[in-house]
Amino acid sequence: MKPLQLSPEDFRRLAERAVEETTRYLTGLEQRPTFPKTSGAETSTLFGGACPEKGLGPAALEEVGKIFDHARPCNGRFFGYVFGSGESVAAVGDLIASIVNQNVTAWRSGPAAVTVEHTVVGWLADAIGCKGFGGSLCGGGSSANLMALAMAREAKAPANQRGAQAGVVYASEQVHMSIPKALALLGLGHDALRFIPTDRGYRVRVDELRSALRADREAGKRIIAIVGSAGTVNTGAIDPLEELAALAGEYGGWFHVDGAYGALAAIAAPEKFRGLALADSISLDPHKWLYQPVDCGCLLYHDPAAARAAFSHSGDYARVLSQDPVEGFAFFEESMELSRRFRALKLWLSLRYHGLGAFRDAIARDLAHAQRLVRNIQARPELELLGGGELSAVCFRCKTSDADKANAAILKRVLARGKVYISNATLREGFALRACFVNHRTTEADVDTIVEEVLAAAAEVGAAGIAHVSR
Question: Binning pLDDT at 50, 70 and 90, where does residue 324 land?
């Protein structure tokens, strides 16, 4: 047998062992604590050490159970971040994609894989009401936002030949951190980003945006792009996309929508996303609200020529010779990636297995779960609703003296109890507890556990004013 090569029989036994271990994990998933009882020292001891010189063979899998025991589980009581729950059919797709091992860089490198990705991108665009948009899959929303702003820069302030020119990009003060990071990487700099104030619902104020645009135009500054949020990470706020699109048109800017969190909710609640199809580009993450295993981000754009203007620069060895519109296609001419994994297979398989309607229903349940939590919070005088509910993120806190310090202690205790996993946000009122629903495994009972656990944790830490709450 050649080095590193398994016989078909050896592979079958290895795969069966892996399926057995993962099935056991899934069977007990809901009984696992929402964060493992572990430490940095323990994981370093368990999974560190020198690389073995002599292979362990099938015994290498014996440590897989310890991986499970020291991992943060994707069970129905995880509400911490905007992070999908890892749908199982898609996981099978990832295994198949790894076995077939296609470099999805051009049709000639992976004919089926490139075609499947085109198909999936078209499905996503259609599903959110943006029929006719093209695009590609990528690692996540940060990569998609970077590529979108590279397209905006090349369209409005060309830089590929002679370097970056000064210009201005506008976004709400609630914009995701990947936007200023992208501007730094593109050579525009953090100072090129105008943070626009938001209203009481944390949506960008159009009047403030218009004033900033007018002032910069009068000062002779180059307007590159307006970034709208279709679901801010803190509260799920959706900016007024139609009005932002109109301003982008009026001032000659690119209109990008960061929809990494929220845009896929348009499948279930299209009325919340009026104006989405007016964007020049849209980022979205199937590994969030289509529950796919990471990584699976997506950039959609209205004009493929703009993507080629930003990214087309091929070495002679990679030059595509075919003139056929299908066989001559190359993703590397419309993306910053050259080597690209077969991300589309898991999504293609998952959507074919369950059907789009099943995902629409799951997203609708997540939206309903957020509203259920809002009602549960409002029913308890010890709690205060601070923001969210427009999509599936909900921010709240316990009413207590020294609220920031007390709620930080409550959060730490909630996580230590291990029954639910929530996170935090900083809003105008200060430190907030935050729950976000992008989880196909969550039940109504799981939702109800959030308030129960927060109040129990508050009692345990002796938060002033609410320590009387019984568990």
Answer: confident
